[in-house]
Amino acid sequence: ISGSLVSDTVFPHDAVQKRWNEFAITDVAYAQPWWVAALTRGTTLHEQRYVSADTFPKDFIARGWEEGRHITSVAFGKGRYAVVMSKGTGYRTQRWVIRDSLPVSWIKEVWNEGYHVTGLTHVNGRWFVVASVEKFRPQQYAYAYRWPHHTVDSLLEVGYEVTDAAYGDSV
Predict the structure, then answer these.
(1) If you placed Cys at 44, which of 15, 88, 96, 151 could pair as Cys (CB 3.0 to 4.6 Å)?
(2) Which residue, among 90, 41, 51, 52, has the nearest Cα to 70 in the 3D structure?
(3) Could you give the angle at the alpha carbon of 56 between the alpha carbons of 7 and 12, nearest 5°?
(4) C-alpha to C-alpha distance for 103 and 129, rounded to whole angstroms
(5) Which pTM value belongs to this model?
(6) 120 Cβ partners below 8 Å, 6+ apart?
(7) Where are the alpha helices (DSSP H) in the chain?
(8) CA-closest candidate to residue 83, choices 57, 106, 55
(9) For residue range 2-45, what is the model confidence (pLDDT) as tens digits?
(10) Which of 60, 58, 38, 48 is nearest to 123 (CA)?
(11) SS3 breakdown of the chain: % helix, strand, coil, rounded to 5?
């Protein structure tokens, strides 16, 4: 069972707080002019923490990792970063990077180290990418100036799933 919360002004703190006893935040996003928080009942995610901040929350992320949480969703909009960290992810470790363009070489590097991309968003003209270690199936990525529907369709046909998508002004 899932639902979503929408706010046109700020990250929907109050609405999330009202439903947090029953639901886990499974995704946050900003699609101008709306903030959206997707909440799902019955997931393994628990003991979540989130932040909505006007500066990049690297200390929040470091503290979350120290407490055994992992990044489960990231977004940027209206000059604010939103990061959700959770326990119960199945991730063993994570890394993140921010680059001016989509960090293709970094993605290939972390793939070779056993990581998979588990989050990405376009942040103020830059790309924020999260990679995690866990038992994943093989992963592919596609990037283009238009939605890469032919690539996505062909990967879906051979058993891949779309796990994340983001739009940014720079590739």
Answers:
(1) 88
(2) 90
(3) 15
(4) 8
(5) 0.76
(6) 74, 127, 128, 129, 130, 164, 166
(7) 13-19, 58-66, 104-112, 149-157
(8) 57
(9) 455 555 556 666 666 666 677 888 888 887 788 888 888 888 99
(10) 58
(11) 20, 40, 40
